[in-house]
């Protein structure tokens, strides 16, 4: 069990049914928060909710499609009705598709941008209307090191994550007077499935000598949303084992 330093705070985590979002939800629950699991994957999200409750912790699943404005408004409305407040929003939901720019269809582009980027604006806008009436709050947006560097055929994903970083500091400026802090985290390689199957070369190429885990990102969320860290806002924290600082030359 974690320390109860987020006791009874209301924390919304989008895309909390799997991967990084799942670990973030577990972490806040361990620290005493009421965790709202916002996801459209009903089966996975229900499993996370049940796992948290089975530990004697607090969680509720609200089916949400973050790419749709009406679904986001329904989410925030339900949370406001149930808890009367929102303390923390973690904008984690995201999708990707690897596809040549010559072949990427516009509807796929729109789906990725709407799910990954527009959702950050929608969720933050709606949550902020509740936060500002309750003394403020914190928003953490999960971006990616793909905002800073790329592999081929990732245009839509890279654009969405780059947009998140820009949107983060814009929102931090706009919401500052309402005592709402907005920050971003850019994860590098975070293994969310079979960590034991990773090879030594996978680990050793990092300055940290290991591939990242979802818990690395969850702990950063705690830092960015702790009450004593009010001086941290508008920033993007890269958590990638040092990979974006590594020079790589062909021999």
TrEMBL record:
Keywords: Oxidoreductase
Pfam family, one: adh_short_C2
GO molecular function, one term: oxidoreductase activity
A biological-process GO annotation: bile acid metabolic process
Gene3D superfamilies, A to Z: NAD(P)-binding Rossmann-like Domain (3.40.50.720)
Listed SUPFAM superfamilies: NAD(P)-binding Rossmann-fold domains (SSF51735)
InterPro entries, alphabetized: NAD(P)-bd_dom_sf (IPR036291), Sc_DH/Rdtase_CS (IPR020904), SDR_fam (IPR002347)
Family of this protein: Belongs to the short-chain dehydrogenases/reductases (SDR) family.
Protein's name in the database: 3-ketoacyl-ACP reductase
